[in-house]
Amino acid sequence: RKEFVDLYVNYVLNESIRKPFEDFMQGFLRGCPGRKWKMFLPVELQTVLQGHTKCDWHLLEKSVTYGQYKSLDKTIRNFWTVFHKLPEEKKKMFLVFLSGSDRIPAYGLEHFNFRIVDPQVENPDELHLAANTCHHILFLPR
């Protein structure tokens, strides 16, 4: 029985996926040459390719800079109060809105800089929330 279980496990986890995995690996190595990736441990490589999946949202708040705002302005305090009450899924949706990705880059939140800027329009009630994903700028009307 042990031999059967060992052979079955080997088949399911190795043999049955060998061809699809080899095809994937060949395509991956064509775009990402293997020599350069060997310097990473598997966990590090996963972080480089996928980014961080868990976020310390208070660290994100500390790394923000403001344009035409101060951190104690009522609009900013209200923004962070609402933001921190959001469920994790909604916070990641905000991250997608701001940066185009729901993950923090490998260099971490402490280096993920984004700005909150007042678009300074005459009637802020007529302006929708907007973001510049390339530069990580959130245009937050008062």
TrEMBL record:
One of its GO terms (molecular function) is ligase activity. GO terms for biological process: protein polyubiquitination. The keyword Chaperone does not apply. Its EC number is 2.3.2.26. This is HECT-type E3 ubiquitin transferase. It catalyses: S-ubiquitinyl-[E2 ubiquitin-conjugating enzyme]-L-cysteine + [acceptor protein]-L-lysine = [E2 ubiquitin-conjugating enzyme]-L-cysteine + N(6)-ubiquitinyl-[acceptor protein]-L-lysine. The active site is at C134 (glycyl thioester intermediate). It is an enzyme of class 2 (transferase). Residues 1-142 form the HECT domain. PANTHER family: HECT-TYPE E3 UBIQUITIN TRANSFERASE, UBIQUITIN-PROTEIN LIGASE E3C. InterPro entries: E3A/B/C-like, HECT_dom, Hect_E3_ubiquitin_ligase. It comes from the Eukaryota. Keywords: Ligase, Transferase, Ubl conjugation pathway.
